[in-house]
Amino acid sequence: MRVPSASAMPLVSVCAASWVLPHIRTQNSWSTMGDAIHEHQRERAAFGVDEAMRRIPLLARRFELTEREAGIFLARCRGFEWTPPAGSFGEVALCLRESGDVERVQGSKGRYDTPPDAVTAGTLDLMWSEPEPLDLSDPTHPMCPRGSVLWVTDYKSGDEAYVDPIESNAQLEAEVVDALSTKDVGSLCDALDRTNAVMRNFATKRDLEGYFSTNIEFHQLMIDSTESSVLRTILHQANAMSLPVRFILLSTEFSGRADYEYHREITEAIRARNFKLARKMTVEHITANLASVIDVYADALARQQER
User: Fold this and answer.
1) What are 139-188's pLDDT values in tens digits?
2) Which of 121, 134, 227, 306 could anchor a disulfide with 112, C-beta 3.0 to 4.6 Å?
3) Rounded CA gap, 222 and 305, in Å?
4) Is it true that domain 171-306 has CATH number 1.20.120?
């Protein structure tokens, strides 16, 4: 079964029907070199830096790089300042199922062997856990040990100017706004206004749990209105991991004087169908407290490891 790949999500979120149209894969020397660089990073994790560097000529021949391209390839490999930790998995093909389960599959580059209930599939550049390595008792289902952190990275080898820094990367929430651009959003905006009013009432009463649950409802209204099972499933998993940290952060700052302007302004932009502005404000809203969220998570992890 062919399902939308993770890299196709921006297109599918805007026009779901686009996925049923015939697709022609593009191939050029730069995309081929990118594939070779990804394989080099996988070999760094598998064999170590020294051996991976010795294997560069083999990779250049394997990917049929010209002499000039092979020289550029070598220079870019030498320029890496970071090396994957030992025990990392490279080029890991996974699929997300409707149940929320994730499992390894065969395939790559938009062509995956997936089960009938697959929502999407994609390839992770690198995956590992720290401080304890992944539990490989079942090689088909690597497990992150309790108390360790699972790292999943997507690395880029091009110009940093074309890559969103982590501090401003809110692609999933931004995709929600993009998906709304093809919908009738009048009833949604009315619901958002009502939810924001309830949220304000909870904050005035300094009801932390009521405020937090209504804040979740505000964002869930937007997600559900996309009518995208892909976005709903992925964001359900993401929120399951992030909400506990967000609650801890809010509990340390909750004063009853929460700022509602961003909710109101986002709603107004959506109602006016100014989705470019709504996307920009949503990204700013999501990333505004990212530094604090990272600190809260690190502190919670440290306390867990001390037990």
Assistant:
1) 767 788 888 888 887 776 666 666 666 555 567 778 889 889 889 999 99
2) 121
3) 36
4) yes
